[in-house]
Amino acid sequence: MEGGNSLNLQLQQLPLATAAVSVQSHADSFSYKENLIGALLAIFGHLVISIALNLQKYSHIRLAGSKDPRAYFKTKTWWCGLFLLVLGELGVFSSYAFAPLSLIVPLSAVSVIASAIIGIIFIKEKWKPKDFLRRYVLSFVGCGLAIVGTYLLITFGPNSHEKMTGENITRHLVSWPFLLYMLVEIIIFCLLLYFYKEKNANYIVVILLLVALLGSMTVVTVKAVAGMIVVSIQGNLQLDYPIFYIMLVCMIATAIFQATFLAQASQLYDSSQIASIGYILSTTVAITAGATFYLDFTGEDVLHICMFALGCLIAFLGVFLITRNRKKSVPFEPYISMDAMPGMQNMHDKGIAVQPDLKASFSYGALENNDNMPEIYTPATLPIVQEQHGSKGVSAPPYRVLEHSKKE
């Protein structure tokens, strides 16, 4: 009898265990489906943004090279680019509501890949095959590496999915890991801002680290706002929570300050350097913020985390190779400007501009190399007039001409 009862008990427990396994597999497949939806929305958004920016750039270049008196905002091409830009931003914004933050942020490499491909396809100059491969081999290798890294990111990305409700976001906001992370980030941000403003540390790493720290808060708030909007559309209204408006204000404020620092960096450094270094720093800091605030990697095994990190490194290398091959823009400088003369009033700045020393790394006119500048500007050697002390009839000259050598 005892054997029969134990057999019946095992038969009763078997359907329950089978149902639990099926529910778990269904939840995993659903979460992977959400990851795929979010990744596809992010890839679509970045592709459309890249096309839109290139369309607007093409509109400006075409107007600058023609005699068309119209403004850029009166052309159809510019408005088409603006429409695609808004559509792409909406796609990226909505992707944060479906997939984890740590998965969506690295996918901005798609925009760099698309820009490189568009630049190669629409090239205006004619090249020989050998020159073309020598010139663009880094771009091809970088695109391949970035695509491989993107595939690894999507395949081994974090699989944490949590409803973005007001209670969940508030609980994450007051958790001790995020509070400790915020304290460290605020201290680092204040130190960098002090060195940047007071000590004139205009290094590209300093400026882009400020951008990355602000950007991490931007993506954290974007995911909260987008997730709460999607949950509200599904029927559970979240717009009456004060945390929604707090996140909305933080999102707008950090985005504005981030754009300000990016504009200052673009005035000092080349756009290719900003694209590569900014992508690496912003992605690293944003993944750290997402893992701290939303606990993206909770429950993930070591293999998935290592493969995800490998995908990030490969994507970083690909973006670096793509941006390394871009031409650096050389601004046009006149041959000689009036404010380069000693004591001449500067027309651009309100002050006296003094001509710099010849030993400095400045170039005037068509002189690209200053190595031979002392030889060019060496004073002419004049004959020496000796003083005659013994002759009374010959008077000494009122001045004395000395010989200048190149060493002096």
UniProtKB/TrEMBL annotation:
The UniProt record lists the keyword Transmembrane helix: yes
InterPro entries named among the record's database cross-references: Mg_trans_NIPA (IPR008521)
Superkingdom of the source species: Eukaryota
UniProt-recorded Gene Ontology molecular function terms: magnesium ion transmembrane transporter activity
Keywords from the named record: Membrane, Transmembrane, Transmembrane helix
Main localisation: membrane
Region (Disordered): 389-408
One Pfam family hit: Mg_trans_NIPA
Subcellular location as annotated: Membrane
Entry membrane topology: Multi-pass membrane protein
Transmembrane annotation, as ranges: 36-56, 77-97, 103-123, 135-154, 174-196, 203-231, 243-262, 274-295, 301-322
Keyword Mitochondrion belongs to the record: no
GO cellular component: membrane
PANTHER family to which the protein is assigned, alphabetical: NIPA-LIKE PROTEIN 3, PTHR12570
Similarity-based family: Belongs to the NIPA family.
Protein name (Swiss-Prot/TrEMBL): NPAL3 protein
Species assigned in the record: Chunga burmeisteri
